[in-house]
Amino acid sequence: MNRDPHAWARLGHKLKEARLARGLKQSDIADEASVSLASVQSAEAGTVPKSRMPITLPPIAAALGWKQGSVDAVLDGGDPLVDSSESGQWRDVSVQQQLDEERLAGIMTTAMVRATEHATAAEIRAATKIALDELRRQGYLPETNSVQPSTISENR
User: How far is CA 27 from CA 30, 44, 58, 88, 155, in A?
Assistant: First the structure.
């Protein structure tokens, strides 16, 4: 059994994140999983078990929509396994891992062009910059210096 406190803290964070994403309270999960509120609290706190895997973890994970094996996957550094066909369920994807900022700006600009008829290119770029700054402020994109990658390539 994995005894790494960082792995258990990560599991606790993922459990809490999944619960909050569903708009549920800890007591809601406890009821749905047929476990005690203390079990949910302990799981979300990332408490390293003293001897063996707590038997309450699989029902808690299942109540969050995680497939069997998700707890081990998260403890091993991965993400929970979710059924993507479940209606209303979103899969967490790290924007930083999937898109670089320049590609994201291109996608956003294209979407804005399609959504607006009379906006100028400068207005669309300004709106894209505002959206990117908000993504950066919320931690979805890394902070950058004042020189943007797209302006470097345009000035050459």
Answer: 5, 12, 16, 21, 57
Q: How many Cα atoms are found within 13 Å in the side-chain-facing hemisphere of 83?
A: 12
Residues 31 and 59: their CA atoms lie apart, in Å, by: 10
Bridge partners of 66, per DSSP, are: 82
CB atoms within 10 A of CB 39: 20
Rg (CA), the chain: 21
**18 HSE (CA, 13 A, CB side):** 27
Residue with tokens 């990658």: 149
Nearest C-alpha neighbor of 19 from the set 55, 44, 51:
44
The answer for 46, left when phi > 0, alpha when psi is -120 to 50, beta otherwise, is: left
Q: What is the pTM of this model?
A: 0.54
Output phi, psi for 66, to 5 deg: -85, 145
Q: What pLDDT sits at residue 107?
A: 73
| pLDDT average, residue stretch 99-113 | 72
